[in-house]
Design a protein that fits this description.
This protein is an alpha/beta fold. It is about 40% helix and about 15% strand. It is built from nine helices and nine strands. The structure holds zinc ion.
């Protein structure tokens, strides 16, 4: 059974690696434009966490502290309604997404974020492939994961806190870019789009920047999308919907043949 699993993993690798290398790997550097935007009154973002056993509780605290330090500048404070134990569903980012995306956002969660430990197998792949440090779905920007343990050289460069901040920009609907200049007004528009009656930080269809103002709208949009993909027979497609993030240096390694 183990071998069968590995074999399947290897078959899907070519597609997944291509998706990784196609994108750039930064949401961009800060610019002075950050101060030119009015972000409105403070808001709370409630991030519900799934956590594998190997991620220490202190790491959860340091990640949440790092998120608050970064996103406080937009008047956002990050609260964690709950942390639930979770077993990493598979070896690849695609397998993680297949588990994560169909999960419903339940009240009071605005976002569902998984903190994943690193497998020894990931480190082996890291020698030849860019490592996936995290990903967020681009259909609703409400589900994502980050690798939250220090276990490889590339990760020491980025660090789980920096990787979590990167993914959190995606959870606010910001795509990759060279700078964050285009992201600042997106964050302002996201905050402004909040429906006071809905008790929910809107989800974002990333490409069109369409706001999904209720939890049910975000849940049903994702359900609908998953159903479409399944109808199209693309078994691996939930992964393809994400912004997959590789660590910097390894991105320049050549693609191995599948
Ligand atoms: Zn990214």
């Amino acid at each position: 059974v183990r071998w069968a699993t590995r074999r399947r993993t290897r078959t899907g690798l070519g597609l997944w690696a291509a998706a990784l290398l196609a994108g750039c790997t930064t949401v961009g550097v800060h610019t002075r434009a950050i101060d030119a935007i009015e972000y409105g009154p403070p808001q709370t973002v409630r991030v519900c966490l799934l956590k594998t056993a190997d991620v220490p509780a202190a790491r959860v605290d340091s990640i949440v502290a790092a998120l608050n330090a970064e996103f406080g500048r937009y008047g956002l404070s990050i609260e964690v309604p709950w942390v639930r134990p979770w077993v990493r569903p598979g070896f690849q980012a695609g397998a993680i997404f297949e588990d994560l995306l169909p999960r419903e956002l339940e009240p009071p969660c605005d976002r569902l974020f998984a903190l994943v430990d690193r497998h020894a197998g990931d480190m082996l792949w890291g020698l030849v492939l860019p490592e996936v440090l995290g990903a967020v779905d681009t259909v609703t920007s409400t589900r994502g994961f980050v690798v939250a343990t220090y276990a490889s050289l590339n990760q020491v460069v980025a660090g789980p806190e920096a990787a979590a901040i990167h993914e959190f920009y995606h959870l606010l609907g910001c795509p990759h870019g060279m700078t964050l200049t285009a992201c600042y007004p997106r964050i302002a528009r996201l905050k402004a789009a909040r429906d006071p009656a809905a008790d929910f930080l809107p989800g974002v269809e990333m490409e069109q920047e369409k706001h999904l103002t209720t939890r049910e709208a975000a849940n049903s949009r994702l359900r609908e999308w998953i159903a479409e993909q399944r109808a199209n027979g693309k078994a691996q497609s939930p992964a393809a919907a994400g912004n997959a993030d590789a660590s910097g240096p390894a991105v320049r390694t050549p693609t191995p043949r599948p």
